[in-house]
Amino acid sequence: MATRILLFTQWFDPEPTFKGIVFARALVEQGFEVEVLTGFPNYPNGRIYPGYWMKWLQCEWIDGVQVTRVPLYPSHDQSAVKRVLNYASFAASSFIYGVFRAKKPDVIYAYHPPLTVGVTASLLRFFRRVPVIYDIQDMWPDTLRATGMVNNEKVLKSVDMVCRWVYRRVDQIVVLSPGFSRLLQDRGVPSSKIEVIYNWADESSLAAPKGRIEDIFPGSDRFKILFAGNMGNAQSLDTVLNAASTLQEKKSRVTFVMLGGGVDVKRLKRKTAELQLQNVQFLPPVPMSEVGSFIQASDALLVHLRNDPLFEITIPSKIQAYMAAAKPIIIGVKGDAADLIQWSKCGELVEPENAESLASVAESMASMPSEQLALMGERASEYYQDHLSLAVGSKKFGQIIRALVSGDSV
């Protein structure tokens, strides 16, 4: 009989998520039986997706995977109260289903954030007597503090206490970077309980880019550096605009293309206009299926985060996408993310929040022979396939699951 996995996550396809149907399907291909327990899709706009409507329970099959949806309060509002209602309502309804309705699994896989999923998974572990794998994608309360989502120290301390409670009760913790592992060990989690499995990219979207972009993308005479993704406080993109100003004064052929949305877009556009920058172009968000076209049309790809200790142990998901796309990378992040670029020799490092450093590296890369840039891209792709791909990551998860079910140490 196949090992049965309850894949427990608040967000699942058609919502954007790292461990969605692609991950579930990869587990099925390894011979596991998978049931997904999730909510009705409403992220990131806080509105139920077309084709879905709230009810007590909905079961559907997606690519051979059973997906069970339970009710929640749909919201992704800035309001703390509404956000708590969103998390708590899913935690409550998923707990009820998990205890009273779900077929007993052999293993529970729980995706964090939010922390409430970890709490519910720990309770299900107690009531159903099955091991739990806890996949930590955001380090709470550190992320809450660094992004400014929560500033109340009493609340942050309470979150930390709940996190430690969950860590003690789950059987295996998976993290996305060595830095996360070190931080958990500093907080008393045994190293034997932690496994590092890097995130992978949306490989299907990158493999078959869609859409014509010639009319909205800078011409071939420009060296196009693409930043794709969220533009918010954490990305500190004033650095890019200040670097662009320096390069414009030098009459450089570098152009920064900013693709995506976020709370900081309007302000960044205003600053671009104030500085009269002709070498910065903003493009609206596009579906993931179309991002590959913009990546392939670019000469280099940019990753940048604020100079914060938290981000030294964070690996932004766009790095895997950039590497899989076989393009040179400019990275303004310290720590684990920078290590990947150095190990693979696929790009150049800049000092975070240092416009002069970014301008210098951008101009240097724009001056490189095309053969050197192509070699960087080849190295990026090779490293991704060998260490970061879906095949590599899902195989590691499969090994952990089998070890927990058999009672062997991971």
- Provide the helix percentage: 40-55%
Calculate the mean pLDDT score and round it.
Answer: 92
Strands of the widest sheet, in order across it, are 3-4-2-1-5-6-7-8
Q: What is the succession of H and E elements? A: EHEEEHEHEHHEHEHEHEHEHEHEHEHHH
Instruction: Report the uncertain regions.
Output: none
Structural class: alpha/beta
Distance between the termini: 22 Å
Strand content: 15-25%
Largest sheet data: 8 strands, mixed
Can you count the helices? Answer: 15
Number of strand segments: 14
If you compute it from the alpha carbons, what radius of gyration comes out, rounded to the nearest whole angstrom?
A: 22 Å
Form type: globular
What features would you highlight for this structure?
alpha/beta, 14 strands, globular, 8-stranded mixed β-sheet, 410 residues
Write a compact overview of the structure shown.
The chain has helices spanning 21-29, 80-100, 115-128, 142-147, 153-169, 178-186, 203-207, 238-249, 265-274, 288-297, 317-324, 336-344, 355-366, 370-388, 390-406, and strands spanning 4-8, 33-39, 58-62, 65-70, 107-112, 132-136, 172-175, 194-196, 223-228, 254-259, 280-283, 300-304, 329-332, 347-349. It has 410 residues and is of the alpha/beta class.
